[in-house]
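Sample log: GGDEF domain-containing protein.
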Amino acid sequence: MGKEHSARTIYAQFLGFWRWPPYSDDPAVIIAQYAALKRQIPLLYAVLIITACAIVLLYRNHAPDAVLTVASGVFIVISTARMIHWLRLMPAADAITVEDARKTLKRTTLAVIPIAIAYLSYAFFLDQFGGPFEQAAIAVCVVLTAIGCIFCLIHLPQAARLVHLLIMLPYVLFHLSQGNAAFVLIAFNAAIVTTLMIRVSQNVFEGFVELVTSQTQLALQQQETARLTAENRALAMTDALTGMPNRRVFLEQMEAAIAESRDAGASFFVGIVDLDRFKPVNDIYGHAVGDQLLVEVGERLRSLDHESHVVARLGGDEFGIIAPGCEAQASALGETISKALARPFAIGDNAFAIGCSIGFTTFPHGGTSAADLFHHADYALYNVKSNGRGGTCLFSYELAKQLLTKTEMETQLQIADLDSELSIHFQPSSRCHPARSAVGKRWADGKAQNSARSCPANSSRRPSG
């Protein structure tokens, strides 16, 4: 079975060698063939010019001067013109269409016919002049020129085969007709060698096609990889529900704004928008309605967006804003956003009025790092929420101090042992008539020795007599 398979393979290769190669339909291969020919066709014409000059030198003392001057001159002029045309006038491979490149390949194949016939006829005509040395030299010139042309046309196998057939077949027949055994042997040897060269050139061309095809496939895979990478990056940087930039982008843009503003000596502000009555809508009407409400909130915020603003969804019912400007501009934008989100949202048969609370901070007064700016805007938002929903607040360090004190107080109240730490004190009141005293509760928090702190969050006063 192995020997039979090998025999079939050899037979198929033998038949494939004699089969005329078709033109490729692959656009990438066609363009690659054109690019290779644009580099090599000028070399082919250079070979023809050298051959014409060599013929003049060989037969200058044997052939008529008129024949040498006119014939060789015509060959040299035409070859030079065609060389310049390919070097200067033919478009680059990246500037030609596939159809034009295909037409150029076919024209080049057809152009081989008159060139091969003309040069071979010229060589046969000169064979009648000169002695054995000149005849041997012209025979060698014909073979070497054919080999050079085949190499230059290696990326256009149709033209290479035409050169082989149009030169070597008449070449062998001509020397057979002359009857010189030495030249007949040279002719047959040249025919066999050039035939093997055609086989090798066919192998080279097939490898060339495989290389171009693999490069094309690799380029397509790279494009697909780049597309998937871009999609994944977009997914990683985009909120899936609203299509807005997400928290990650928001923080990256904040870092970029810090660097840019620090270099330019400019300021910008950061805002956090929190929807006020979103949770009841989401709980009562369901997540589908809640999601649609978030989408419409995002659309309203984007309708207020300026090209220099960054509007992102931070998560849940929170949105973030980064914009150039100072505190006054932040307040103005906050008012605009509050009015926009105060208008009812119509979703299906229902209308929802939610409103929003907004906390702002500015760079550099409200912080010099992304973490500080974000936390300080959140402080301002917390202040709005703790004082009743709706409105805008600008961060200040005094505000942060108050919030921190209040938070610490509430935390201590949660963990305190009020039965042992709470005490009642009586204090005379000079404003009361008749004389009375005020009763107040005091909480010893244990942080200071022999001291007591008034408990504003849990104190009460009432008159006693």
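Observation: Residues 303 and 426 are 61 Å apart (CA to CA).
Observation: The chain has three domains: 2-220, 247-415, 418-464.
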